[in-house]
Fold these 4 entries.
Entry 1:
Amino acid sequence: MKKSQIILSKYSPLMAVDTVLRGSDGEVIETPRVCSLCRCGESAMKPLCDGTHATVGFDGTREDSEKAEIEHYEGKEITIVFDRYLCMGAGYCGELEPVFGTHDEPKYEPDEGSVEDIIATIKKCPSGALSYIIDGVHHKNYFKVTQIAVEKDGPYNCEGDIGLIDDQDSDTLLPDADHYTLCRCGGSKKKPICDGSHAENGFKG
């Protein structure tokens, strides 16, 4: 069992256990060993929960559980692996346009960039949707520091050795890498996973 955990039920906030919480300003937020994090998007104490989810009728039911097959794009030296279900549209992959294309016209061409640039770009992906295979080894764990980093007006970026326990769990839907993004605007259809809804619903926090 992983030392740090995030535990949730359908109607509860996120319960973070033994995990450093870092605010969007980069500073550590002092919390007890177990703390409640808002995921309804309405707390006046964001990122901490103030119980508002109970008064606004928050329902954390996962509406989208249709996960497509994980995609593999094989090149001469590196294979790009894409888990479309985990993607929340951060857009860092678009910085290497010859390989990944643009947000509106994505593509996956592993021979159109250097291995080093592809790896560096993949490691910027906060959701864990992108990973890579070299010489038969699947690389998807990169973080030495364990923390939950709050993204301004965006999700929780969970990094390092943090287990995720969800009472709606299907192991095939939850991330298994050492980094993933969790919804805190309340709008994701893939709860608790972020699907990028914060960018559309005007979430601030």
Note: The mean pLDDT is 95.
Entry 2:
Amino acid sequence: MKKFFITGTDTNVGKTVVSAVLTLALNAYYWKPIQTGLAQDPREGDTVRSLTGFDQTHFFPSAYAFQAGLAIDQAARLENKTVDLARCNLPDVEHHLIVEGAGGVFHPLNTTATFFDLMKKFNLPVIIICRGTVGTINHSLLTIDALRQRDIAIHGIIFSGELNSDSQLTIERLGNVRTLLHVPRFKSLSPSILKKWVDDNQSDILERLQ
């Protein structure tokens, strides 16, 4: 079974849309261990379910769900809570699984732990979601280097949105990584639009996830 941890170079880089793409392409199960921002948008945790159209059986509840749209440690503190990694356990499922993180790899979970600690615990190959625009080279290479320093396996990178091909080649060369996919920025995004794009690229997606 293919199981991947989805991280990004920073917040709002496209992790959730890419997670929906991979969930659709693999007919996978999906889990976001820690969710924030529910006060701003109560549907925040349902984006992948909405985009895929899959029923509830494909989705596992978050171990933590916080109201404030802040860094996880800050959002937890506002609710007088502390994230305990012992409560964040991979769903026991014999099926493809997409696990989506929040923010970037250094995103704090509590006063001592970051997403590095959760990735080490889960021990899943990591897919990094990168922007394709100006600034992506530095952010992407720093993320790649930080993961490698901690012996966290990188399966590859996926570019989200506009893509500068020269930047892509530079990241591949200097980071010694492969590009799995480029998910474009959709002018409008709906379940039908996303499904058509995934259907049109299904064979390529599955081949590159090998």
Note: The mean pLDDT is 93.
Entry 3:
Amino acid sequence: MADRADARTWMHRGIFVALAFWIIVFQLVPLDMRPANWAGPDLLLAATLLWVARKPAYLPVPVIAGFFLMADFLFMRPPGLWTLLVVLLTETIRRQHREFRNMTLVVEWGTIAIGIIGITLINRLIIALVMAPQAPFGLAIMEMSATIVVYPLVALFAHFLLGVSRAAPGEVGRRGQPL
């Protein structure tokens, strides 16, 4: 039987939903009409991976899949490919969330970086196999690198301003369920 989520969990889910909407809208609003020479970080990916690594109960799979599928349509990516890769990565992290409790930020950052590199390269490979048009390789590497570099800043923001911190070993929820 599924555990019911308490008010704190629902509050953090709401915070993530609001943050995800803000990130998507911010990326859609044109600040300059000239084409960009650089690619910024994928803040939605960094925030999602952080949320799942720190508090997996705060972010269920349908929320992740819904936001990334919506982003696929809005950013004109192949629908569902990036979503599938992100869901697979988040579920891999979710399965190992107990190991993330004892990791230092540097080890967590490295683990997340390996996952980001993996899904980026798999995404590029699949798009190349079906011969669909894709962004230049340099821009994809730039976005991937920027996402990896910005992860610790997202972690600090989430920890100090949003209250998304690691569960301590032995920490239990309001109803006594292990976190």
Note: The longest helix spans residues 137-162.
Entry 4:
Amino acid sequence: MSQLHILKHPLIDHKLTIIRNKETKTKEFRETVSEIAALLTYEITRNLSLKEKEIETPVSKTLGFELKDEVVIVPILRAGLGMVDGIHNLIPSAKIGHIGLYRDEETLEAKEYYAKFPLEIENSIVLLIDPMLATGNSTIKAIEILKEKKAKEIIFVGLVGSPEGVEKLQKAYPETKIYLAALDEKLNENGYIVPGLGDAGDRLFGTK
């Protein structure tokens, strides 16, 4: 069974067009990225386990449900920050960790410069988020870090991916579920996704 899920929905496609457009300004780009993340969350969480909880309505006692497992949202800095609020608004009980990575200019490998997680991560479902799954190097490094922390389950959530990045991630961690809003054509010679949406971090924060 494939662990790759491309989530098709009219609203997602509509909003993807907005963030792909080079004319979209920082404010609208940032807001739309958050909105797409929220839409993805409905599908990502579809199979989360529940446990019964007895409550009392204004009329009578009844059995309801709550999430069985803790959820931890972990953005890869800095672009992943743009997706946090959209997901957290729907899962407000989720804790948030952070992973900071940079690319070694000589080896081109992803290197850790920051990692901080809530204590609950060992018993939690981790949503690892980054708008772009390009080469896959950063995502693979982030999963390696999370596994060292004994994360219970890791789900990658992105907006746009490349076939090369998806293939590399699946080879490295075939058990990891991958959720994307779109799988694009390819990587170009500079490692950018085509057609993609440019540098997500720069477009989110108005930097160059």
Note: The chain has one domain: 4-48+68-205.
